[in-house]
Amino acid sequence: MGDKITVPDVRARKGGPKLTMVTAYDYPSARMASDAGVDMILVGDSVANVVHGMGDTLGVDIDIMVLHARAVRRADPRPLVIVDMPWLSFHISKEDTLRNAGRLVREGGAEAVKLEGGHRRVPMIDALVGAEIPVMGHLGLTPQSVHAMGGYRVQGREIEAARMLIQEAKELEAAGVFSIVLEGVPDLVARMVTEQVSVPTIGIGAGPHTDGQVLVYTDLLGLNFGHYPKFVRKYESFADRGVAAMAAFVEDVRSGGFPGDEESYHLPEDVAAELEGRPSDG
Ligand code: KIV
After folding, report:
1. Which residue out of 204, 213, 231 has the highest number of ligand 1 atoms within 8 Å of its CB and is therefore the one to mutate?
2. What is the DSSP letter of 20?
3. Rounded CA gap, 172 and 149, in Å?
4. Are 169 and 180 a contacting pair, CB within 8 Å?
């Protein structure tokens, strides 16, 4: 399917062809993403919600992100592998941020990290880029700020907030990020950011005018139980199909239909006969 995708490859795609990114958290999801030809895998902290069943992303730490990153890397994926820095892993000090990102790279096999936030995070981004760790920014609806935002709300709707978002994108660009995720922002704001920064923007709930799109893979495959946000397009119904398949298994076991002869191991006839103490058929 081609060569491994690198950070410079992603940077070079500013303006097209459009970039694609999906989340993955383990070996099979990474294999699907890689075989499907996506450009980037995000080991997102959304793993908290969609794998661990938590109510927000605040409950996952560096150990959990390392565990999932390692599972993804074992699939030897062609897409660039970016790993989310979880909440509080890049807020305390530059040293702490470097140590945590270093673990994602060294233990988890991350090829880049992503972190949420604007100008308050610039010193941390600066430190990471200085240590040769590529950084993807993330602006707009940043789920780690759920309490500060008062819920999961579209950001940048008012004039000052929209201007601030565009300004912060420029600050992240100046700090050296190689790409910026724009989540939950009006399409015009995403378009203006995309036009005004030189690095690719990757949208989720940000309209069509970004340099690429990202979806949580369980949303895309219909593998979630519960609410799907407005911006999701469900390309499959894996949860419904999975329930139906497991119900069929239950039915087959109860009716004696599983396992069948072809799903069972058999002794050679002479061994079977001796074991049962009967004359052999053959
Ligand atoms: O954790 C995640 O899945 C993300 C995407 C929504 C961009 O940050």
Report:
1. 204
2. E
3. 20
4. yes
What does the block give as tokens for 166? 């565009």
Residue 214 CA, closest ligand 1 atom number: 7
Cα separation, 253 vs 259, whole angstroms: 7
Residues of the chain with pLDDT under 50: none
Tokens of 26: 């383990």
Is 195 assigned a catalytic role?
no
What distance separates the 2 farthest-apart alpha carbons in the chain? 91
Q: Cβ neighbours of residue 260 under 8 Å, at least 6 residues apart?
A: none
Cβ proximity of 9 and 80 under 8 Å: yes
Measured from the CA of 45, which atom of ligand 1 is nearest? 1
Separation of CA 257 and ligand 1 centre (Å): 43
Instruction: Give pLDDT tens digits for 196-242.
Output: 999 999 999 999 999 999 999 999 999 999 889 999 999 999 999 99
1-15 pLDDT per residue, tens: 689 999 999 999 998
**Amino acid (one-letter) located at 251:** E
What is the distance in A from the centroid of ligand 1 to the CA of 273? 61
pLDDT at 226: 86
